[in-house]
Amino acid sequence: xxxxxxxxxxxxxxxxxxxxxxxxxxxxxxxxxxxxxxxxxxxxxxxxxxxxxxxxxxxxxxxxxxxxxxxxxxxxxxxxxxxxxxxxxxxxxxxxxxxxxxxxxxxxxxxxxxxxxxxxxxxxxxxxxxxxxxxxxxxxxxxxxxxxxxxxxxxxxxxxxxxxxxxxxxxxxxxxxxxxxxxxxxxxxxxxxxxxxxxxxxxxxxxxxxxxxxxxxxxxxxxxxxxxxxxxxxxxxxxxxxxxxxxxxxxxxxxxxxxxxxxxxxxxxxxxxxxxxxxxxxxxxxxxxxxxxxxxxxxxxxxxxxxxxxxxxxxxxxxxxxxxxxxxxxxxxxxxxxxxxxxxxxxxxxxxxxxxxxxxxxxxxxxxxxxxxxxxxxxxxxxxxxxxxxxxxxxxxxxxxxxxxxxxxxxxxxxxxxxxxxxxxxxxxxxxxxxxxxxxxxxxxxxxxxxxxxxxxxxxxxxxxxxxxxxxxxxxxxxxxxxxxxxxxxxxxxxxxxxxxxxxxxxxxxxxxxxxxxxxxxxxxxxxxxxxxxxxxxxxxxxxxxxxxxxxxxxxxxxxxxxxxxxxxxxxxxxxxxxxxxxxxxxxxxxxxxxxxxxxxxxxxxxxxxxxxxxxxxxxxxxxxxxxxxxxxxxxxxxxxxxxxxxxxxxxxxxxxxxxxxxxxxxxxxxxxxxxxxxxxxxxxxxxxxxxxxxxxxxxxxxxxxxxxxxxxxxxxxxxxxxxxxxxxxxxxxxxxxxxxxxxxxxxxxxxxxxxxxxxxxxxxxxxxxxxxxxxxxxxxxxxxxxxxxxxxxxxx
Length: 797
Known about the structure:
alpha+beta
């Protein structure tokens, strides 16, 4: 933010030099990027009059001029400017004038013609960036007087404004900060508006108050478009803006003065003389002032008339309502728009302007009213305008101050200071913060309308630090304390989970937490309102916190497959977020992605084996067993929006909490990924695994006697699951049965009949005290066989 020191002095007394001002505001948190002296014309530059202009004999773009600057005789100057016409008064750098950097005006020959000085442009004199031609001076200036006396120098300070302080994006905002430090009074400009008492010929309606809390419109007639006065030109040019005409310059001036972007519409081009602030329709188009045609969505805020869009709110006006030299009646807009919406629209449409830069950081609704009145006053003064009727002020969502309660002791503890509550209150009051109560240690304040960043007591501590000066905070050795119990360390279980998954042969990937809305909703049954949206997202692609790890895993799989890497065994461990019962919830989740060959490093048939559902199931079981949950969970069929129906299962703990979902990804998730093999995914609730009931640790001697295996095969209904068989076998509590494993599953309607399948299991029996005999094992096996027939109604084979 560039500010002119002379301009700042209009609003408050400043006794400091530019460097001293920069030093004081740096201590208060506002740091300068540069300090530049401008408008200091070199000695030796005088007012001169061009007597004649002739073409250069050896150049098609240069002229030979005779110039009078009050000396005994006119001198000859060779000039390349297009506007060196006879009769004009211009700045002349006489022989010996030193511009610095070794550039001194000397007598010379240009293309063989002698030149005895140099006529100057505004940029050559350091007055502005205008280099299109000579600087034309007033005709009534006497010849020979120093141009330095006509243009007093100024100092321009370019401030580095932090995003949380949009009120600093204006001269008045900086002046307010200076007043807080010096204790002097802030003086705002007085307004004088010529009003013709009549009904206002225009109307304003806000259909999207969520994006536009306030809109003020004023109608002016008899506007005369023309050049701005020199004082306004000089101020604009000092901070890097070129003067266009009085109306445009006034809007730019107000943005620099109050930090309020304005826009002027030609009222005759507004259908129905209406302004409607609404969401754009999907596919609606508008052509902006720079000739760009934009296709809008319902997320873009549009300023429209009764028939069409006439401006992209907070970004740029439309070509169909622009001000021209023929314009006589103007509707002036001064509005406050939602900064998040402006930022997202600007990024999505790739349309960044000075106005969008300001709105993205925030414009207070109260600023809109002050700026509107100031602009009206300047239009009446500098453009001969008359306001028709009263201002139209639509304010559906009035600004409300926040109440903050703070403790003086807490503020002192944070800053290392020893201030009383009253001293703290006095410092806050100098920054425009209203003090409503000081009682004992307690301070209660109301936030001012120009501050968007004050919400908690810690923000007030920052205000005190800046008022005292950051150098006033004493140096202190930081206090250190030994850590607590390892059981309370939330990082250790996370690292243990990471190492367990890596031990299963998986490669870790890491992704960003922020994704687009569509990516976050993919593979879930969540509604948009259940997502957590970032308050100030950089773009729509990073506007939401992920509710699952699916977006990142799918992106990594797609990235690898597009680079011909099809054999993947990946995992990610990270935080996920969503709204539950109206409150935000954060969880730790692990995700697994498995596709392609299991052992591409081998040869023969083993190399060709690809991952299937049971390989993923084995990985998750391995993780749960390693997490000491063996025997304390069950796997059962399930349905999940991310997985194909019939190829999905869930792991459930004994406390009925779901530990994980696994399955084959639905086609909607893998669309656009050129997979060679099915993609299998798992989503594990790590915190549920950690808190699930665990079996008590029991230590037994290793068996020294061998176990004996028996097989059992039977025909069962197709709906019977292997887990049901295993659970039933264990429920029989057959002594010395230590393991049961499925080893064969066969389905053939022609052989077994409809709705039937054959299942075969290996049973292991073992006694820690002796070797079992065949008779003993056979008795145990028969007990198992009869138990399964009775409880599951299976047909033994």
